[in-house]
Write a structure and sequence with these properties.
Family (chain A): Belongs to the ABC transporter superfamily. Ycf16 family.
Protein name (chain A): Fe-S cluster assembly ATPase SufC
Number of domains of chain B: 1
Helix content of chain B: 10-25%
Number of helices of chain A: 10
Strand content of chain A: 25-35%
Radius of gyration of chain A: 18 Å
Largest interface: A-B, 29 and 25 residues
Order of helices and strands of chain A: EEEHEEHEEHHHEHEHEHEEHH
Distance between the termini of chain B: 53 Å
Strand order of the largest sheet of chain A: 6-9-10-3-11-12
Number of strands of chain A: 12
Shape of chain A: globular
Radius of gyration of chain B: 21 Å
Structural class of chain B: alpha/beta
Keywords (chain A): ATP-binding, Nucleotide-binding
Largest sheet of chain A: 6 strands, mixed
Organism (chain A): Thioclava marina
Bound molecules: adenosine-5'-diphosphate, magnesium ion
Oligomer: heterodimer
Helix content of chain A: 25-40%
InterPro entries (chain A): AAA+_ATPase, ABC_transporter-like_ATP-bd, ABC_transporter-like_CS, FeS-cluster_ATPase_SufC, P-loop_NTPase
Strand order of the largest sheet of chain B: 2-1-6-8-10-12-14-16-18-20
């Protein structure tokens, strides 16, 4: 599904190398988790994969089902089935959430040569998906993410994911800032989308999300690289011992991480 | 050399002013005002950023009429239509000028109607201080037609003024009066380019507890020029609301002068201007002056400009709070969204406050498209041009929100979307 080879990324404006050779393969139907200290490059990886400006790939490649991701426009990547749930969802005043959701869904349908969804069918679809995420009519009516609480913003990300039905979902710290109930809702939303064709890359700082979304594989990222890969037990180990030991083993100082 | 050739354009223009019949004393007084103040030059403080030359020239610059291919604006709204072709009233195309609660007359045929004689030129003359507005005085002196609307109750439907542009050299001057009696309410719609060069004035007198709504769309003609003025007086507990959408036009200067004279009144002026220098020059100027001369009144100025390919926007907005105008709530925001580096926005926000218990704020910003929001939309599969269009709508939303009724907001949004779809990339 997703294949990242030796990915090196620096900031466009600054001489600062952030990713220093990331290798990662996510197979269809699998859930991979990436954990790592703040500043290790997790968000950068998710942005580079989804096509945000400001980064320069100096080496390496990334493919989604054989499609070269790095050359494509962000909207082309989305149409090909890539989705990023943002760590900090963006507020767009003056644009209704419903308008936003319908525009996104229809844009992707169009890009795939499908027909636009009718207003009636769309309404039905949104209501159904929103209900299970406990997103009420008011949140759908309001401007995109404006005046949403942290938890509402994250649930709105999952709603978008549920509507767009991507095949590769990247979740960047979707658990941060959530209380236990909100986290359970989000995790249920994600679990409802799990199937043998859809893959997930769950970026998190804490292991607690992984109690709800059970990963198949866990990676530890530090200083722009994946330094350790294992099963769910790796997340538990980090939870118990922190990152210090792992970092030391790989000769990375905490400051660099 | 003849005497005419030695005149400056401004002198030649003044020499050509003729006073049509009706409202004789008011017109003569306006001409005296105009002669005393003279036509503006670039050195005048409020004309530094907008070149008045084309408004002064004795003849208008020729402007090709433009075929608007969009569905008729406000076409689905039940309204009373008053049509002017190049500034000439078109009885055929207009509706019967009668509706309950409203008296509608043509300026050219009004003769000496008492209420109109008392109002014609009065608010314009008041609004000449402290800043002169020569094109408004010129209008009062020489306007050839217009509508005089007196509202005594709640108007059963909006009055819709439609201005078409057919001759390349038309130079219409129209003057409207709107007088709302106590507790009355009306919506006045205006749309269309009106001519190659259009000078239009509207005097609006809003009595106690009355409500005035104004929604205007200036024509899509790329080559047209327009200088317009709204002069309003707002009494106790009254509401004045005006919104203008401008897309295209070589040169537009919209002035709005509002005197809030009664306690607990509200006055809101808003505008959205969209300019693309690629389809002809675009220069748009909003010059606003709101005077608070009563207690507990609220005023809002919300102006948004979207500029690309060398388009220019100007905002000059003032809030004057007179002594004793306590508990005034004055708000002013002017913002521009520059879609490239060739476009320019100039803003001059002014506050002058002579009362101590007031709350006034003003802000002005210039910015580009928010890259983070753009990426967010694109990451959801929305192509870059469509995403940009959505962000433009997001940017102008606050101004559109100033329109009270949803049906008018929708009509404006449709026009905005139309412009955006024609001006992509
Ligand atoms: N646009 C940027 N400008 C400056 N520094 C950046 C930018 N993006 C990332 N960085 C830096 O790159 C490093 C990795 O950041 P990030 O990818 O956000 O890490 P994480 O998500 O793992 O916390 C940090 O040192 C961060 O400050
Ligand atoms: Mg991060």
């Amino acid at each position: 599904m997703l294949e990242i080879k030796n990915l090196h990324v620096k900031l466009e404006e600054e001489d600062k190398q952030i990713l220093k050779g990331v290798n990662l393969t996510v197979e269809a139907g699998k859930v991979h988790a990436i954990m790592g200290p703040n500043g290790s490059g997790k968000s950068t990886l998710s942005y580079v994969l989804s096509g945000r400006d400001g980064y320069e790939v100096t080496e390496g490649e990334a493919e989604l089902d054989g499609m070269d991701l790095l050359e494509a426009e962000p909207e082309e990547r989305a149409a090909a089935g890539l989705f990023l749930a943002f760590q900090y969802p963006v507020e767009i005043p003056g644009v209704g959430n419903m308008t936003f959701l319908r525009t996104a869904l229809n844009a992707q349908r169009k890009a795939r040569g499908e027909e636009e969804i009718s207003a009636g069918d769309f309404l039905k679809l949104v209501r159904e998906k929103a209900k299970s995420l406990k997103i009420d009519a008011d949140m759908l009516k309001r401007a995109v993410n404006v005046g949403f609480s942290g938890g509402e913003k994250k649930r709105n990300e999952i709603l978008q994911m549920a509507l767009l039905e991507p095949k590769m979902c990247i979740l960047d710290e979707t658990d941060s800032g959530l209380d236990v109930d909100a986290m359970r809702l989000v995790a249920e939303g994600v679990n409802a989308l799990r199937d043998e064709k859809r893959s997930f890359l769950v970026i998190t700082h804490y292991q607690r999300l992984l109690d709800h979304i059970k990963p198949d594989v866990v990676h530890i990222m530090a200083d722009g690289r994946i330094i350790e890969t294992g099963g769910p037990e790796l997340a538990l180990e980090v939870e118990k011992n922190g990152y210090a030991e792992l970092l030391a083993k790989h000769g990375i100082s905490e400051v660099m991480a | 050399m003849s005497a005419v050739e030695k005149m400056t354009p401004a002198e030649a223009r003044l020499a050509r002013v003729t006073l049509p019949e009706g409202f004789g004393p008011q017109r003569r007084a306006a001409l005296e005002r105009l002669t005393a103040m003279g036509l503006p030059g670039r050195r005048d403080e409020y004309w530094r950023w907008t070149n008045p030359t084309d408004f002064i020239a004795p003849e208008p610059v020729a402007a090709a009429p433009f075929k608007d291919d969009e569905p008729e604006l406000f076409g689905e709204i039940d309204r009373l239509k008053v049509v002017f072709r190049d500034g000439v009233f078109d009885a055929e195309a207009s509706d019967d000028l009668s509706m309950s609660g409203v008296e509608i007359l043509r300026l050219a045929e009004a003769g000496d109607v008492n209420w109109a004689s008392a109002l014609y030129g009065t608010l314009e003359a008041n609004g000449q201080k402290p800043v002169v507005r020569p094109f408004a005085a010129l209008n009062t002196a020489s306007a050839t037609d217009g509508v005089l609307i007196r509202v005594t109750g709640k108007a059963e439907k909006p009055v819709s003024l439609i201005y078409t542009h057919e001759s390349e050299t038309s130079d219409p001057i129209l003057h409207h009066l709107v007088k709302l009696e106590e507790g009355a309410e009306i919506t006045v719609l205006e749309n269309g380019p009106a001519g190659a060069r259009f000078n239009k004035l509207m005097e609006v007198d809003v009595a106690k507890g009355a409500r005035f709504h104004h929604i205007r769309v200036q024509g899509r003609d790329h080559e047209r020029r327009a200088v317009t003025g709204i002069f309003a007086r707002v009494a106790d507990e009254a509401l004045f609301k005006s919104f203008t959408l401008t897309s295209n036009g070589v040169l537009t200067r919209n002035e709005c002068v509002i005197d809030i004279v009664g306690d607990d009144a509200n006055a809101h002026v808003a505008g959205a201007a969209l300019g693309d220098g690629k389809s002809g020059a675009f220069h748009h100027d909003d010059t606003i002056f709101i005077t608070h001369d009563a207690e507990r009144c609220e005023s809002r100025q919300v102006f948004k400009k979207v500029l690309k390919n060398g388009a220019q926007g100007v905002f000059q907005g003032k809030i004057l709070v007179k002594p004793g105008a306590q508990k005034t709530d004055g708000y002013q925001i002017s913002q521009s969204l520059l879609l490239d580096e060739d476009s320019q926005f100039l803003a001059k926000p002014e506050l002058e406050i002579y009362a101590d218990d007031v709350q006034c704020s003003h802000g002005s910003t210039t910015g580009a498209i928010d890259e983070t929001a753009l990426f967010y939309l694109r990451s959801r599969g929305v192509p870059v041009e469509e995403a940009t269009a959505l962000l433009v709508l997001s940017f102008v939303a606050d101004a559109i929100e100033e329109i009270e009724e949803e049906r008018f907001r929708d009509a404006i949004l449709t026009r905005l979307e139309g412009w955006l779809s024609r001006h992509r990339g």
